[in-house]
Amino acid sequence: MRWIVMVLAATLTVVATAASAKTTASPATDVKIDTITGVDLQNLTFKIIGKDGKETMYNVTALTEIVVNGKSAKIEDLKKGMTAKVTSSDSKNAERIDAQGKGDPIKPATKKRK
Is 68 exposed, middle or buried (0-12, 13-18, 19+ CB in 10 A)? Predict the structure, then answer.
């Protein structure tokens, strides 16, 4: 009998913990689909601009998942002009970037002639 009471108490504890976990609010996730306007490889940031003309900058962290044209990618693969779907829970750090298109090719730095 004592064993049954202990099992029942443990089961109720697990059920109560699971129920409280479901009611805990998670941070809102923001998803934007806009055009990449710039990528800063040194500071690990990129900017997008929406149809409303508002530009937003995001940080790329070690945890950011980047996908370009359906394939796993790096920040170096993001190009100005690509369409990007950016997922972020704090509007500062990108959690996932799904970019599509070719974008503008990176132009090598050239020296000015005198």
Answer: buried
CATH number of the domain at 30-100, please? 2.40.50.320
Question: How far apart are alpha carbons 18 and 12 in whole angstroms?
Answer: 10
Mean pLDDT, residues 8-35 taken together: 58
Question: Which residues contact residue 91 at a Cβ distance below 8 angstroms, ignoring those fewer than 6 apart?
Answer: 30, 56
Q: Which single residue is written with the structure tokens 């044209």?
A: 69
Q: What is the length of the chain?
A: 114
Integer Rg of the chain from CA: 23
| Token pair for 39 | 């990528």
**Residues 57-82: tens digit of each pLDDT:** 999 999 999 999 999 999 999 999 99
The pair of structure tokens assigned to 8 is: 């029942």
